[in-house]
Amino acid sequence: MGVNKEHKEKLILFESTHHSIKAERVLFDNDLDYRMAAVPPEISTDCGSAITVPAALDELKDLFEKNNILVKAVYEFKKENRKKEYKKIYSRD
Known about the structure:
The protein is an alpha+beta fold. The protein has one domain (9-82): 2-Layer Sandwich (Alpha-Beta Plaits), CATH 3.30.70. It is 25% helix and 38% strand. The protein has helices spanning 17-29, 57-66, and strands spanning 9-14, 35-38, 49-54, 71-80, 83-91. The protein has a 5-stranded antiparallel beta sheet with strand order 2-3-1-4-5. Strand 4 (71-80) and strand 5 (83-91) form a beta hairpin. The model is unreliable at 1-5 (pLDDT under 50). Residues 11-76 form the Putative Se/S carrier protein-like domain. It holds the Pfam family Se_S_carrier.
């Protein structure tokens, strides 16, 4: 897989901490560039961890499905003047 600069960075929220930790290992094993992050308060007041990764949504969904990782939601985001704007592009609901 690898990093593709053409893909916007995604913020991925998981159903549980267990799934976010498992996702981190899977992303590492597949040579994807990622960062662990806190769930932004603009999205949820719940404490939790998320992962940011620049990859195609379909690739991520396939990878997580093959590894039984439950994704709660995926957001694209852009930074503008020290502020981030989030757009939900996938929801498990």
